[in-house]
Design brief:
Helix content: 25-40%
Radius of gyration: 23 Å
Order of helices and strands: EEHEHEHHEEHHEHEHEEHEEEEEH
Number of strands: 15
Oligomer: single chain
Length: 332
């Protein structure tokens, strides 16, 4: 392992540099950019707010690496509402857990901790055509005369019998149709019993970043400031699309690995030490990991809310570096 003192603060053109030099170079590039993007956004709440301030100062767009995941979740909530719960409530009360899809991890069949007299049934619905199968399952539950295999009929009976049921799913795996059908299924079940959805949180503190941006602008991820005020457009401000189409001439990437499309655009990277840098960005700045190397507020999927993580007290944080870049941009 390289001793900490041997790791440079930053890289310019692949060569070791001082952080102040890298900040100045990043600010100069952002100030000169015609259509910059701040992407990745795998940071804590303070980092998200600092990225927002930098976007305002430079007219940049903001996009999270897992924006597609969280926007699919949001689209369903916007259109249909939802009955949602948390992992803690699920373990405490659920007597029926439906795992939807292949990527959702197994759930312990142990009895609910607040209702130990109940047994817990754990079921899984997976495979191709989930949207259609969920639609057929809804029809079976509604008593419609529809062709369905015995497995779906048995599943419907188990769901009807639930006293506190939970469907665990991931918008990272399910498409729009499957998510809509699942939301409808949960709403249907709530006519006669208690049933909830438990969405798997997207990585990279995506939910926390979404809350931070929404609190400040009224919008989630994929926000642009090219016309001075915040605008939200999931297609227009998709960083990958902008890079691959040539719409952006510069990306400031914040994350633990570079994106697949990194070679298609000029790149400034704000990453932890030890990240593989291929291709080599024009400017690299090394920052601590939120909640590990420094104190941070992050979304805690277990609790279903924001939580403070003390960290080791190692600086600089992503927020501190972004704030320094913003001050330098404003001085141009």
């Amino acid at each position: 392992m390289i001793p900490r003192r041997a790791v440079p603060e930053a890289l310019l053109g692949g060569e070791a540099a001082l952080r102040a030099e890298a900040i100045a170079a990043a600010a100069k590039a952002l100030a000169a950019s015609r259509n910059p993007v701040i992407a990745g956004l795998m940071t804590d709440m303070a980092g998200a707010i600092a990225a927002l301030a930098l976007a305002r100062a430079t007219g940049a767009a903001l996009d999270h690496a897992y924006a597609g995941w969280i926007l699919r979740d949001l689209d369903v909530l916007r259109s249909f509402g939802g009955f949602l719960t948390t992992p803690l409530q699920t373990r405490a009360l659920a007597d029926c857990v439906l795992l939807v899809g292949e990527t959702v991890p197994d759930f312990a069949p142990s009895p609910p901790t607040l209702a130990p007299e109940r047994t817990r049934t754990v079921l899984r619905l997976a495979g191709a055509g989930l949207g259609v199968r969920l639609g057929v399952l809804r029809a079976v539950l509604a008593g419609r005369n529809i062709a369905a295999d015995a497995a779906l009929h048995a599943l419907a009976e188990s769901l009807r019998a639930a006293r506190f049921g939970v469907a665990v799913f991931s918008a990272g795996e399910l498409d729009a149709l499957a998510l809509e059908m699942l939301a409808g299924l949960i709403a249907d079940l709530n006519a006669k019993t208690r049933f909830f959805g438990l969405p798997m949180a997207a990585p990279g503190n995506a939910v926390g970043v979404m809350h931070a941006l929404a609190a400040k602008t009224g919008y989630p991820v994929r926000i642009g400031f090219a016309r001075g005020e915040a605008e939200h457009d999931p297609w227009r401000f998709d960083a990958a699309r902008m890079a691959e189409s040539g719409e952006t001439d510069l990306v400031l990437w914040i994350g633990e690995s570079l994106p697949e499309w990194a070679e298609r655009v000029r790149l400034i990277a704000l990453v932890p030490e030890g990240v593989t840098l291929k291709p080599m960005p024009e400017v690299v700045m090394f920052a601590g990991k939120p909640g590990i190397d420094h104190a941070a507020v992050l979304y805690d999927a277990e609790l279903g809310t924001l939580a403070f993580r003390r960290g080791a007290g190692i600086s600089p944080s992503i927020a501190e570096i972004l704030q320094s870049i913003t001050k330098s941009v404003q001085a141009w």
